[in-house]
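Researcher: Before we compare anything, I want clean individual predictions. No alignment, no superposition, just each chain on its own. First chain goes here; please echo the sequence and then give the structure tokens.
Model: Echoing the first chain and its structure:
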Amino acid sequence: TVKDENGCEATDEIVITIDEDCGTTTASTDNVQLYPTVIENENQVTLELHSNNIQNVDIQLFGVDGIAKGIRTTHSLDKGDNMLYYNINQNRDLPSGIYLLKIQCEDDKMSCVRRFIIR
């Protein structure tokens, strides 16, 4: 709820949908694993991805409010199993809370979101 200087109030609702089942022939989201899912002292998370093609993948960190919290990075995927490391804080101290990591393949055939918690 927001109130202006005249006393008028407005309320808006933000809905965030996490699609955990967005499979594709290029890369299956069932083959995207993120760990750890609860972070206390670590500065990075590990992503395990399987790709049927050589391609690039974009990774970006968001808060549950939908606002980008981290720098968008691009990583190269080889055909087969890949292990990527994403630096969460990237020289920023993130407060405790729930965060979303968006993973998007360059050919737009795979996009998924993984959730983790910073304590």
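Researcher: Okay. Second chain, same rules.
Model: Second chain and its structure:
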Amino acid sequence: MAKAVLLLSSIWMVSVAYAGTPSDTVVVAHVGPFTITSRDLLDSYEFGPAFVKRLSDPLRMHLSYMIYERLLALEAGRLRYDTTVFVHDRVSALEEDLTVDELYKDKILSQVHLGEDEVEAGVRRAKVNIRLRWIYAKTLADAKKVNAQMKAGSAFDTLFARQRNLSDSSREHSLETTLLDLESDNPELAKSIAGLRVKQVSPPIKGSDGFYVVNIDQVWQNPLTTETEYTTLKDHAVKTLTTSKADALGGEFVKEKMKSINPIIKAEGFNIIRAYMAEKGLSRDTQMKWDIPSTFMTEAGPLPISSSGKLLSKPLVTFGSQTLTVRDYLRWFDIRQFQLKTSSPGAFNSSVKKTIWKMVQDKQLSQEAYSLGLDRRGAVQHEKRKWEGKLLYLAGRSHVARTVALSDSAVKNEYTAHRQRYRDASGKAMNFDQAKEQIKLDLYYSGESKALLRTLQRLQKEFPVTTNDEAVRSLSAAVLKETSPIDVIFYKPGGTFPRVAFPSIDERWHSFPPTLR
């Protein structure tokens, strides 16, 4: 099933905050030293995969999968996976991100205040719905050609249809939103089309990846709202306006921080980083065309960029009394994996530089947050523990999966016993060579499920597991049944650690029995 991906965008990216209630801290399950609170369960369920929501007792089943993951995390901890670089570095990065979120709350969010007139104006803009379509052009010249064609008599609908036929079908080229959300999510676009009337086409609008010619299809609003609808609109307006103001304050805060330390990128270190990132993400032909070397001269002669320890220790950026090396950057980048632009040498160089500035920014914010002891806050430690459990679960599940062995004879026997099951797209029976890879996958997933079942049954005997059935029943009664649940991924691209915004259960449990037998 296709997934909807929602980007929670902000310069700091504080996690969604809930108005706490006493029930948030009610423990619904103990799994060895792990505790699962009602808020943990509801958050995980709300932002988790849709398959659970189709089960007969979805919240209880979701809790079962959360328990399984913590059991596997305990197994991974016992096997010392918590000391591996993969787990250790990511837990540290997540703690840093959570700690900087607390700095955001203290330094930025606490300074945001909204007047009643401001909120009412936001509610009015939230009532205004707008539907847009656009034609994309890579260059300004191409965008001007589109405008010229329309001035010459071509209809927008005709050019729009032609674009959809020529372009990637995954690109919708349309948007339906409210005026308030458009101003918050894309203020430059909102400003550019502010003076347009319905069915009027904009001049070329510059975007991050090209130019856009925008047509306003429709603008409408419902002037009459019920009390409940008004309350919902007002809550949304307050959150949206608060985020917009906080983003502006946060941007100024970070700008002043960077100005005060005056970071300087070292040319040699940058060239090494550029070559290293090119080696990882560009073809050999592109590297040669852009004149990016694959070796650097050392005292021992020319060495490949990835094989010299001396190159990794070269200074990359200095700020204040601090220096970050090439090695610092590569370790920082490895767990973040930003997408670098590869459309041209200039775009590639610029995007590499932006990640270096991002690293310095993260370092400054985290150092201030840690100096204030914000990492010791209970909210940070609780969330860190959840993420650590998630990473250990992944390590534990991988450990179990590596025990699944497939022999050639087992694959052959499976085909002999169930050859009628393996057919191609037209329904024709496949021979063994054609079906081999599918058989291997079937046997692997079957073997993994059996290995997981055995492991979880053993772990339940070794680690005490208790559930608060009364609390789960109460929460289940309050959860609305979804008739057509869909998978939605909330992704947090900003902050110090881009990641899925909320730790939830693994979608791979879809093929596993809901309860252990």
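Researcher: What stands out in the second chain?
Model: The longest strand covers residues 211-221. Additionally, The CA atoms of residues 135 and 162 lie 10 Å apart.
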